[in-house]
Amino acid sequence: MTAQDMMSVGFVGAGAMGGSIARGLVEAGVVEPSRLLAADSDPRRLEPLASLGARTYPDGAALLADDPDVLVLAVKPQVLGGVMAELAPLVGDRLVISIAAGVTVASIEAALPQARVVRVMPNLPVQVRSGATAVTAGSRAGERDVEVACSLFSAIGSVAVMREDQLDVAGAVSGCAPAFFSLFVDALTRAGVLEGLPAACAREMVESTMRGCAQQLLNEGVHPREYMERVTSPGGTTAAALYELEGPLVEGTYAAVAAALARTRELAEG
Prior knowledge:
8-stranded mixed beta sheet, alpha/beta, Rossmann fold, 2 domains, 11 helices, elongated
C-alpha cells in the first residue's frame, strides 16, 4: 500500500488508549504519519504523536476542518456525549469509530444522525500491537465500513466481529483481562515474598514464567487445561496448589466479569 492509497484517520482523544491505537497504526504502516490527525485538550498527550509526524489540533472541530476519512472517538464515556454534541454539525456521513465502553451504537447514531457508526472495544495491549478488539456495526454502516475498522485494528492485534451485546461481554473479558493478569502476577509475587523470596527475585521469576507460558500457549496452540496438566503430577505440589486455588479463582473471575458487565450497562444508561 502506498502513502497515496492510505486513508486519513482522525482521533478525538489522545490519552492512553487513543494515543496507543494511533501510534500502533503508524508503526504498523497502515496509516501514513502525515495522514494521522489527533486532537486533545491536553497538548502533552499530543507530543508523542506529533513526534511521529502526525498533525495535531486543540479540539475536534479544528481536526474535522481537515476532513479525515475516518473519525475515531477515543474519549471517556462520561464526556462522549458532550464531545458528540459539539462535533455533530461537522461530522456528516463519514465513518465514525467509537471506543467508548458502554455507549451504545444507538446512542451514537442519535447524536450523529448521518454518521456511519462502528463501535469497537479494544484493550490495552494494543500498545504493543497484541491487543484484542471486538467490532460491531451500526445500522448505517456498510460492509466496507466494517472492513475498514477491522483492517485498522487487525494491525494492532486480533479482531472479532460480533453483535453489540456480545461486544459488551468481550469488553468485560478482554478489556479487564490485563488488570486481572497483572493482579495475579502481583499476588503470586507477594506470595513468594511471604514465603521468603526477595521481592525482586520473585517478581522476575513470575514475569519470566508468564512470558514463557504465553509464548508456548500461542506458538503451540495448546489448550490451557492441557497445559496445566503438563505441570500437574498426580499427588504432587502443583495438584495440591490447584486444589486450593481453582475454586476461588474461577468463582472470583466469574464474579469479576459480571461486575464489569454490570458497570458497562450502568454507563450505557447514563
